[in-house]
Amino acid sequence: MERLKTAPEYSSKWLEVDRPQALCDNYLESLFEKITTGWTADHTLAGIDKFKHQASDWILSSKLNQLIGFDSFNRVDVIIGCTQYIDNIYMQCQPQVLVGDYRYHDRLGNWGTRPGLLREGIPLVIAMPFPSTGAVHTQMTEILDEAQVKGISVHVDGAWLTCCSGINFDLSHPAIKSVAVSLSKGLGLGWNRIGLRWSKDHVKDSIAIMNDFNMNCRMLTMVGSHVLSNVKPDYLWNTYGELNAKVCKDFDLTPSKAIHMAYTKDGGFVGISPLLRHLMK
Fold first, then answer.
1. Is the pLDDT of residue 2 over 80?
2. Which domain holds residue 255?
3. pLDDT recorded at residue 3
4. CATH number at residue 133
């Protein structure tokens, strides 16, 4: 597999300001190598069901994050990562987003609004953790209550959840209609985008149709199952939490809840994956 950037020296010039990389190590890459050298797996429809159960158990078994309320969702679908989840919403409408959310929305020309100014009846997509803070949005409770009053369906983008520690939230709030979690950030699988969407209502959208008619790319779920079978929940933080603390101490940074990100003194974000990989050696 193509290796991610490793800092050749332990220096602040290798802190990533633009497009910080997710953290991936040699063990995860060794699993990927097996996929490209004669590895085989179940490519039947049963393999997709296996992946759904595996991924659900893996995500919900985290000891470092406390996410409750999943029993309020009655449907689970396979998604091609959280980007498909977001794109699927854009296919139906131009959703609302908040200033400081995922830059993908900016690239789509959706510049964002602020809490208290949400428009009635227009769906809201919000990332958890929130990219510009690395944690649950500080006004999340107020945002959800405002959404409920204004008839706004809220869709939670959990793209970073699998690489986080300390995300504690109850997802059963009636304004929340769906939640998506990707394996990309927590398992180095940005090249094999795969995840799950939980929904409270069955909506006949593109994701539901792909799942109902068995149109999912099975190779994605096969790779996902292979990696899930070999990596325990909370792997990155349990393995590299001490190195994360060292980098933050040495370069006067404040840790975020995401293993590959940290705060600077001025409140900005930098990526620390290249320095973590340097220390791994």
1. no
2. 12-33+233-280
3. 56
4. 3.40.640.10
